[in-house]
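Data deposition worksheet. Section B asks for the primary sequence of the deposited chain exactly as it was used as input, without tags or linkers unless they were present during the calculation. Section C holds the resulting structure in token form. Section D is free text for depositor observations; keep each observation to a single sentence. Incomplete worksheets are returned to the depositor.
Section A, Depositor: J.P.
Section B:
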Amino acid sequence: MRKTLYRKYEALVGRRGTWVDPRYFECKYRLILVYVQSVPQLNIAGEETSIQSGEKLEITCRCNSMVQWDYPTDVSNDINMRLEVETRMKSGRSSQKSYTSILRVSDTTYLDTGEYLCKIKSITDGPSNQTSASIYVYVKSNDTDHLLLPLKSTNIGIVAGLPFTIPCRVTDPSANVILRTRSERIRPDGESVRLDKKKGFVIKEEYKMESGFAKCVINKQEGYSDTKGVPQLSITDERTSFISGDRLQINCSSNTEVEWEYPIQHGNDIDMRLEVVTWERTNENNEKYFISALTVMNAIYLDTGLYQCRVLTTGSDRVTGQTSASVNVFVTSNGK
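Section C:
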């Protein structure tokens, strides 16, 4: 190898008529022979694609290095049971290898919506445009209750002068969503309020948004009519009286989604201690219903008041019968 290099060195010097440091030439020439790592390539063009729930998802990634996959597991708990990855290796000229990795997900559901990323396996510094390729997949459902990915209630810290994001991820890019607070419905205007359907509502610093509970909901088109069910309120352990420091929890069940109203008094930090989680269930008659649990950690006497579970309505929803249920909760200090 070294003899070959120096013959090339002598030929180069003879052509140029100039002196070249043999060590530099050897280093430079060896760099030319170094194996060049390619960027992963996907078989689906563009940044996003859509499929229908129940269809099979298949993504192919090609690269001359071994690759691995990242896929959404935050809300789709059983995706690993329906997912398989097939990897093939092929040797080419100069013993250069190429790899083809195929990711398949069967019986897709709306919960499989998210980013699918193919990245070079040996890279440990995190994916980049040079070491990975990704595509965002929307899995659309005919069920209007599956237009939004479920999200846990979370507290969002706001830094003065900086934009912030309220999570809201849709499963259909054509879904029309709005942000609901206690007193207003916020629609994206493309300026102070922008909707990123892969992340949520991006609120700029100039928008004066009230503090408190906010929820992303589907904004149904005019003329849409949906009969909502009657919420049935139940109290954990049938308690309505608590002592400071207790964990306060109220459950509300209904055959439709609900929202909560709770006491906010001056000096109370209940929004920092409150969490709302909603589960979707099916009864013995295969009918769908929801259980919404409102939990307040480390209850204080300022949490005393009326807690109301109310049918969630948007657009021109039609509600029949009872639309809310409530309970008075008392929190005493030191058992007094």
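Section D:
Residues 179 and 185 are 6 Å apart (CA to CA).
Residues 2-16 form the longest helix (15 residues).
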